[in-house]
Design a protein that fits this description.
Elements lengths: L25 H17 L7 H7 L3 H9 L5 H32 L1 H20 L9 H24 L11 H19 L5 H8 L2 H7 L2 H6 L3 H29 L1 H19 L3 H9 L6 H30 L6
Helix pairs in contact: 1-2, 1-4, 2-5, 3-4, 3-11, 4-5, 5-12, 5-14, 6-8, 6-12, 7-8, 7-11, 11-12
Length: 325
Amino acid sequence: MLPQRQDDTKPQVCDPEGVSLRYENRREVAKGGMLGFFIGLAVIVPGISGSAVAIIFRLYEKLLYALGHLFGKFRRCFLFLLPIGIGAVIGFVLGFFGIRELLNLLPFATVALFAGLMTGAFPAVTDQLKGSARKKRYGLFFLVGFILPIAVTVISALTTSGTRSLENLGLPHYLIFLVIGYAVAITQLLPGLSATALLMACGYFTPLMNSVSLSYWQANPWVLLVYTALVAGFAAGLFTVSKILSVIMKKHRAGAFFTIAGLSLGSIVTMFFNAEILSVYRSWTEKLPWIDLLLGLLLFAVGVVAAYFFVRYERRKEKNPDNLP
């Protein structure tokens, strides 16, 4: 257990906008790493939203600010983003090699666990709406946010049968991958949007997953240019979109969070309705996997309870920061 802070009189180091990017203790650093971990998982697991986790951890607006001001205020933003970046790499690697295997063995149970976590954490999003005036347009923002991830998922479910090739590509294809990388960055910054669903809708999710092997790289070395284009577009999207969203959050915070609430709720629905999970449901017509189904229901409940208790802990800590371990 870390000792209580003794520097309450020490002024916070804030930017002119009033945003403090300083981690107070190791627990805060660990929280940043955990956020990054879920962001890394979000690229692999359908429906997971790293930015929704950022809201739960009360780090969403700081994350947007740090990404949008990385070049202008490099040292401060870099130190804030460092544990998040390390966690993201770990989450992506574990998601690629670990969670993907779990999805193959117990697909419904694995998805149900993450859906339970997102459901139990949803009150953290609605907490941001307290004190906001209930205006009709906010209801419209919520509805649009709710429908958007479901619409993207429906499109991906309808188009996922036609996958594309990563071979014999020309310059226009690499420009397309730049745009796709940029769009994937948007899915990581807007709660409720899924990178997996987007890549499925484009027909590139399965080809990209299958391309990660030494034998494939030796046979098709040009695929490295595909990765480069995706990463370049992703980086550009993070820096530009985060700046735009940071301005929106500052000027239209209430409307933004009503939209985010809709996006978050819609993403929970899409976890049980996307191209991959639909293929699981179709397999149930041949033989119903009772272990996967019952375990999924149990893990969903466990995820709801665990996430909600964490939300309550964060609420108490926000009210009494010096009285909790």
